[in-house]
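ok so for the tutorial part 2 we go from a plain amino acid sequence to predicted structure tokens. step 1 is just haveing the sequence, like this:
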Amino acid sequence: MFAIAVAAQWLSLVLWDREGDAQMVWLAGPLLLGALISDAQRYWLFYDVGWFLGMLASCALLKLPLAGMVILGLADLLLIHLAAFALVRAGKGKAIDDFRRLIDFLVIAVVLLPLVAAGLIALLANMQSMPVWLSQDWWHVALADALGYALLPPVIMSLANPGSSLRRDALPAWNVLLGMGIVLAVIWLAWRELGALPTARPLLLLAPVPLAIFVAMRAQMPGTCLLSLVLGTMAIQLSLDGKGPFTQQDPRFTTVGVQLWMLGMATASLFLAALVEQRRTTMRALSASSVEVRELAGRLIVAQEQERARIARDLHDDINQRLAVASIRLSALRRKLGDSNRQDVSLLQNDLMGLSEDVRRISHDLHPSMLSQTGLTAALAGLCQSQRHRNGPEIDLRVSPQATDLSEDVSLCLYRVAQEALNNAIRHAAAQHIEVALDIGADHVDLSVADDGRGFETAERGRRGLGLMSIDERAKLLGGSYQLHSTPGKGTQLCICIPLGTSMQLQGHA
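step 2 — the prediction. this is what the tokens look like for a chain of 510 residues:
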């Protein structure tokens, strides 16, 4: 803090109106305020000591009246502490990434604190020996302080905030930085060469606005404050040389004009940066919610598959076995009965065997054991064969030979999608011919199910059923996607594409 306070005071002297011996911006006090707000209160004393010693060292190097500067330094230290307490209490945090906190910061740090400090300096100037630049009009000193508080604390607070989006974003590439440097050079050249033209001055003053918007989008508050400081430095140096759009006949008006323009640019940039920060925060929250929903959907699908497997085992190992035992008992009973009752028992036994077959089919639909025993190709062939016998549509199946190399989660996903697509084509589209094609490329697998059913309007895609939602979630869980094309009277085609090698492992289920 000692070294940075000396450096901030030196930089404030660099940005100096030598002709009018007036301070353009004060950075030492804003530096301390930003540090106090951004850290725990138990460290404030150490910051105070380092800052105060740095200010005394600067006064000694500049050979300023030490007694008056000590009193002024202690008064500034007290005012900065009061402002820090007020901001911490009002902001309830270290960030100013929303309009409410930003307005609190501007009112307390950029308006009230400089006004009170300027009034105190004016009072002390009548009582103690002060430098000439502190004996200027109080409003001029207030502008210099306000400009420093608008530029420096937001940078420190944003960089110190763990939740700042700037910490998550990558730094701009070298070509972006080069482009920004070129734009700044063009602005400087335009100010220097065209600043004396009265008709061009309004346009020259607005020239940095597009760059400020771009920087706010890419670097939020630190970038906008740094840009305002760079632009202000350019404006100050050009004005000191009597050039640029800020030059007035009276040097005092030139200084005030630069200060007011920098303060307006800094304030507008802060609001824009806060808006960008809010947008980034909202996007991060939505992204986190999307990830949570996706994880929940994955767990639901896993739980669904596990429950299907449990019910399928119960149907096959318990219900179906009991039906088989009942059929055997009916056979024994039929041999004991006379011819008149034997036919009724045979009909009952046939109904029982049909019921057992339906239970076996339901068990297979719930959990295709063939998929793990014989592979995806045989499971798809069995599914198509079952649909042919049950409903009568013509189903053509084409599967790539590499289907046997697919992982269990991808195979199960493709099987479930094909199962759902066939059910939709038969039940809802009344299809008579269905084509199922499974193609495997070098880095992805494509499944296509096309039918000649009645189709539907594409505008109805927004009203998806549970089946299509399940297909969508299964595809996304494996990093893939699906597309649905349909034309009324010309059928429907469902396509799903899943990348290979990057699919998400979901405990063997998809």
